[in-house]
Amino acid sequence: MNELITSLRRTPYQSLAMFFSLFLTLFLSLLLMFSLTFLYGLLSYVEARPQVTIYFQNETSESSILEVKKELEQSGKVTSVKYVSKNEAYALYRDLNKDNPLLLEMVSAEILPASLEIFASRPSYLPELAAYLEKVPGKDEVNYQKNVVEKLLALTAVVRTGSLAFFGFLMFTTTIILITITHFKVALRKDEIELQRLMGAKASYVRRPFMREALFLGFLSSTIVFAKFSLLIYVAYPYIQSYLRGVQSLSIDLAQYKLVVWPFSIEYVGMLYLILTLFGICIAAFATLFATKKYIAIQRS
C-alpha cells in the first residue's frame, strides 16, 4: 500500500488525469448498460402481453366467447388464447386500484367486459387475427398492440446499434488517452527504470508499480462511478416508479436465467457493479501494459 501511495504521489497530476478519463468512460458505459437493460426489459414485458385483445359486449354469452376461443386455437396462428371472465376482470381491476377506494366503489363485475387475450405465433399473423376479430358477433372493441411492439423493437435496435458504435468510439479514445498518460508517467521515471534495468530487474518488476496503480485507479473509479450513479437513480426513483406504474416487473433473459431489472434486484445491481468494475480494471490494465511494454522495448533497443 505504501508503494502505491508513493507511486501516486510521484505523478499526481497524471494519476488524476487517468482517474478522470476512467471516470467519464465508466459513467457513460454504465448509463448505456442501464438504458439497454431497461429497454430490453420493456420489450420483453410488451412481448409477453397479449398482442390482440377482444372485449365483448355485456349481453354476449360465455358459450359464444368460448366458441371464438376454440376457433382461434384451431387456426394454428396463435400460441395461446386466454379467456378473462367478468369476475376475473373485476379482480384485476381491484388489484390495480387497491389504493383508490373511490374507484372500487364505482365499479362492479357486471359492468366490466369479458375478453379474450390472444398471443400470435408470428407477428405476420396479427393483421389477419385483428381483421377476423373485428367481424366477430358481439364484440365491443379490439385492442391491437402490433404498433407498440414494432415501435419498441425499432427503438431497441436503434439504441443498441448507436450504443455499440458510441461504446466502440469511447473505448478507442479512452485507451489512447490512457496509453498516452501512462507513457508520460513512465517517461518521467526514465532514469529510475534505466537503473533498475542495469541492475538486472526484469520487465515484470519494472512494470509492477504502474500496473498496481492502474488496477487501483480502475477499481476506485468504477466504485465511485457506481456510487454516484446509484445516488442519481435514488433521486430519480419516484419518477421511474411513476412512469412504470402498473408494471409489476421487468426482466431480461440471460441464457437460462431470468434477471429482474425492475424493481431493482440485488442480482441486477450486483451484475452492473461487477461488469463495471471488471471493465474499469481491464481497460486500465490493458492501456498500462501496452504503454509500459512499448517503452521497455524502446529502452532495450
Summarize this structure briefly.
With about 300 residues, this protein is an alpha+beta fold.
Q: What does this 3D model show about the protein?
A:
It contains ten helices and six strands, in the order H-H-E-H-E-H-H-E-H-E-H-H-H-E-E-H. Helix 9 (203-243) runs antiparallel to helix 10 (266-300). The chain has two domains: 2-47 and 149-300, no CATH class; 50-144, 2-Layer Sandwich (Alpha-Beta Plaits), CATH 3.30.70. The protein is 71% helix and 12% strand. Strands 2-3-1-4 form a four-stranded antiparallel β-sheet. A hairpin with a 2-residue loop joins strand 5 (250-254) and strand 6 (257-262). With 301 residues, the chain is α+β, with helices and mostly antiparallel strands. It starts with a helix and ends with a helix.
Descriptive labels:
301 residues; 4-stranded antiparallel sheet; Alpha-Beta Plaits; single chain; 71% helix; two-stranded antiparallel sheet; alpha+beta; 6 strands
What's the arrangement of secondary structure elements?
Elements: H1 2-10, H2 12-48, E1 52-56, H3 62-74, E2 78-84, H4 86-96, H5 101-106, E3 115-120, H6 126-134, E4 139-144, H7 146-188, H8 190-198, H9 203-243, E5 250-254, E6 257-262, H10 266-300
Antiparallel strand pairs: 1-3, 1-4, 2-3, 5-6
Helix pairs in contact: 1-9, 2-7, 2-9, 2-10, 7-10, 9-10
